[in-house]
Design goal:
single chain; 251 residues; mainly alpha; 3 strands
Length: 251
């Protein structure tokens, strides 16, 4: 039997889509994946009650795999279960958003140091390719930020870029938690951000981080990455009133 890190390596390693979108092996796993995406993309809203009858029709499955899927997504923190009340989409909270952002900053700072020290030529090639795909997606979303497909493409490419920065570190556990944290942050971005503004503004930051990493300049790369996250936090602070009003109305 493979160890947990080995299982994670198979799931999250460089040869696998960093979004974890490989086909799940069970019906419950497939429902859990779609449920996770629907919550992150706000097809199911924060605080919304998740009724078995409606979800069963939505995903065309029975109660048993649906219940298992709900518990899987609850383990990720995107669904909450309340005694005698059922399942609900996790609410949005300002403090949680800041916490997730800070954790991502710390995790990715640690990871990029490992990538710079241990990453090989294939890591460099993947990083350059991920940046160019992200830049093209930024141009697309800036043209029409209301188009969900364009926002989704930018989020996927943005995840790929940050994953590419980190994956040279060689730690399957770290890459696993990278994806967990990214899912939560993406949900907040989709709820509060204006993509046309942020996607364009972030291009130069991403490029500077990439160049420092490729130059194997550990101190400059980590400083730029931390500044990148601080700018995100500052943007988050400007949204505080909106976040708190949404959290109060959600419940």
């Amino acid at each position: 039997m493979k160890s947990i890190p080995e299982q994670l390596a198979r799931r999250w390693g460089p040869a696998v889509n960093p979004s974890g979108d490989e086909e799940p092996r069970t019906l419950a796993g497939r429902v859990a994946r779609q449920l996770r995406l629907d919550i992150i993309r706000h097809h199911l809203e924060p605080g919304e009650r998740l009724q078995f009858e409606k979800l069963s029709k939505r995903y065309k499955v029975g109660i048993s795999p649906l219940r298992e899927a709900l518990f899987q997504v609850a383990a990720q923190g995107l669904v909450v279960a309340e005694d005698h009340k059922g399942f609900f989409v996790a609410p949005v909270h300002f403090d949680e958003m800041l916490d997730v952002s800070n954790l991502r900053a710390n995790l990715e700072t640690y990871a990029i140091r490992g990538s710079i020290r241990d990453g090989r030529e294939d890591w460099e090639v993947d990083l350059i390719a991920a940046f160019h795909r992200l830049k093209r997606a930024g141009i697309s979303v800036a043209a029409d930020q209301e188009d969900e497909d364009r926002r989704t493409e930018w989020e996927d490419r943005h995840r790929d870029f940050h994953y590419a920065l980190c994956k040279g570190c060689g730690s399957p556990w770290l890459l696993h938690f990278f994806n967990e944290l990214y899912d939560h942050m993406e949900r907040y971005r989709r709820y509060f951000w204006k993509y046309a503004e942020r996607a364009v503004a972030a291009d130069s930051e991403h490029e500077a981080i990439m160049k420092a990493a490729l130059d194997r300049d550990e101190e400059r790369a980590t400083r730029l990455l931390q500044e990148h996250f601080r700018r995100q936090a500052k943007l988050t602070m400007s949204l505080r009133n909106k976040v708190e009003r949404a959290a109060a109305s959600a419940g």
